[in-house]
Write a structure and sequence with these properties.
With 123 residues, this protein is α/β, with parallel strands linked by helices. The chain contains 5 helices and 5 strands. It has one domain (3-114): Arc Repressor Mutant, subunit A, CATH 1.10.10. The strands form 2 sheets. Strands 2-1-5 form a 3-stranded parallel beta sheet. Strands 3-4 form a two-stranded antiparallel sheet. The model has no long low-confidence stretch (mean pLDDT 86).
């Protein structure tokens, strides 16, 4: 099952995971099939990029399957140019893809959003 995980990523945790993967590769070990991870530095940034309208768009597109932006805007009852802008932003984050016919789709079976507040405190 392909999964996109959207989360708040602390730089030290990201670097530690990258170093561990590099050590496994250097040792000749293969890496397991990985989920797609999209990290933001804080909850404000995460929810600034994944607005309620964009999350509704993702849900609708995941249920509908590949479709045109025009049909998606009509389905959502939204202005075409606003939906187009949201689709472009979600493509930028690799949460939506475009197929050869120009239709947009969600390539993930599952999208998880993980938010932990207060896990780290400044010393």
């Amino acid at each position: 099952m392909s999964k996109a995980i959207i989360e708040i990523t602390r730089s030290h945790a990201y670097l530690a995971a990258a170093r561990a993967a590099a050590r496994r590769l250097d040792a000749g070990e293969g890496l397991p099939e990985a989920d797609y991870h999209l990290g933001f530095e804080n909850a404000t940034r995460l929810f600034g990029e994944l607005t309620p309208a964009r999350m509704a768009l993702l849900e609708a597109l995941q249920q509908t399957g590949p479709t045109s932006i025009y049909a998606l805007a009509k389905q959502l009852g939204r202005n075409y140019s606003n939906v187009h802008a949201d689709v472009a932003k979600l493509i930028e984050h690799d949460l939506i893809h475009k197929d050869r016919a120009g239709k947009v789709l969600v390539p993930w079976d599952e999208i998880q959003i993980r938010v932990t507040l207060g896990a780290e405190r400044a010393a």
